[in-house]
RNA sequence: GGUCCGGUAGCUCAGUUGAAUAGAGCAACUGCCUUCUAAGCAGUAGGUCAUUGGUUUGAAUCCAAUCCGGAUCACCA
């Protein structure tokens, strides 16, 4: 359990002072307290303008009076103040900062919160089993994994889950193509990774389909009709019916090909550090949700049209009418999702359910939550759509038809190559064994990739330019990793340095580092509140940058005095711990050397 | 057409519960390795915060309109 952050400590003191001085109550939320800009003296700044009207005093005199009162009443906390325009800049005592340092520098779990007793399910990845994972999936997977870790850090129980879209017409397409073109080939016989192997047949299907449609059109058929009449398409539709009927040879092929895909996915998941506690398969859940339709009809939430189809009217909510059951009695996507949500809750009693799904499904998720709320489901309010933007190329969206999709395995390999080249160029780890090198390249490669995808606000779409490989300098994973390695090197060299009691005043760069570190627990809280791992990436970068400035300016091992050496060793250790922790929440390892 | 999201430096992005002169990184240019890892540090240059109007002591941030880009509104998944 960590202590309260300084800002939340200061707030009640200020509202107290305001009450004493002016006899008026102010809510803590009404206070604006920012970090003091570096060009001014002070650590934190109270913005005074908001009181001016209510208290009928000039900002300058308000600042003077409040500053006077704070330093007078709490001299152990506030050691100085100054007023510039409408801003009261407060200097927090070095004792406070050193206290934080003494308490936390050796604590690798700084920022970790006590258990809340809440259980949260995070559903992420959720691939189709007809093609391999691509860069878009990686953004999803890294986000999902990271938000799960951030939830844990904030004291929640987390269940990572995945719904595998393992059935449907698109799966049948690769099955048909395999029957037509494979001659019994398998991943084992060809040496191709299972998910890529199946993906090739999905592509082959589309090629063949296109060819057949063109042939029919050339023979005088209309395009629309040709698209329905093409033999491969008809065969695929028949296969879907056979699958639903449970025809043994179709089921066997389906299982066989899905197994290949899962074996491929497992390799990728393992490589990138993704894991799940609960897998759901659409083939098991696609019939769920039908019981909701009956319930909903009874309670009047749904209504039946003359043709037998069932609908919900959401026009009052500014949405549309939405189908929940086809006229032939089969369920649609949203019905399945209702059923799956119910099944999750039945098993786990989760307080919250986070769905990591791209923003193209914003409308769908809005509808899902609304329907469940109207049905009065206890878990409806806990549904949160962690919506993220697409990863695009400079030329626009990735399109599988145009072959511009960035394959997940390829990009990982590419990053490993770059990591290897850079590392060898620098030649700092020539004494590493082969396994150590391989681990280091992986750490750096995945660090660069994950940081690249997580440093951007999830809500926003992002651009990836394959021409410029992901950078290793500046606002990047390797930069932060490098800072960690550098610190560890110093700490190794320090060995068992005897620490002495520290009373010395802090130098500006020492304090700046400490002030920033003291904010870390607040950052993890914000990250979970906003469902936004990028806050941690930005924080880790700023911390690393601040440390590097400090490091260049002040020697740790050759510090001026034993006290300075002690403080700096502690600062260094705490920085390394926080970097490790923050990067860990992003799924990024940090090396001892690089 | 309805709804929603976005437009900030040449590029990629922060900042958007209103607050001091709008910040980083990359790219460009200048310096810094005889001392703890130069994957680093310091500095220069780069902005009509899409446009216009409004609210406010104060607007990149709130409101309205307009322009541009995207998503979505399937008895698809």
Index terms:
Gyrase A, domain 2, 22 helices, 594 residues, four-stranded antiparallel beta sheet, RNA-binding, alpha/beta, globular, 15 strands, 55% helix, single chain, Isoleucyl-tRNA Synthetase, Domain 1, five-stranded parallel beta sheet
In short:
The protein is an alpha/beta fold and about 600 residues long. Helix content is about 55%, strand content about 10%.
Account of the protein in words:
This protein has 594 residues and is α/β, with parallel strands linked by helices. Among the domains are: 6-92, Arginyl tRNA synthetase N-terminal domain (Gyrase A, domain 2); 168-282, no CATH class; 451-585, Orthogonal Bundle (Isoleucyl-tRNA Synthetase, Domain 1). 55% of the residues lie in helices and 12% in strands. It is built from 22 helices and 15 strands. It has helices spanning 6-22, 49-55, 59-73, 94-104, 135-153, 169-181, 187-190, 194-218, 223-229, 231-245, 248-272, 282-285, 290-299, 333-348, 362-374, 408-426, 434-454, 477-494, 508-518, 520-529, 534-553, 562-585; strands at residues 33-35, 44-47, 78-84, 87-92, 119-123, 157-164, 278-281, 302-304, 310-313, 321-325, 352-358, 383-388, 391-393, 396-397, 462-463. The strands form four sheets. A five-stranded parallel β-sheet has the order 7-6-5-11-12, with helices on both faces. The chain has a four-stranded antiparallel β-sheet with strand order 1-2-4-3. Strand 9 and strand 10 form a beta hairpin. Helix 18 crosses helix 21 (534-553) and helix 19 (508-518) runs antiparallel to helix 21. The protein is globular. The two termini are 33 Å apart. The model has no long low-confidence stretch (mean pLDDT 93). The structure holds one RNA strand of 77 nucleotides.
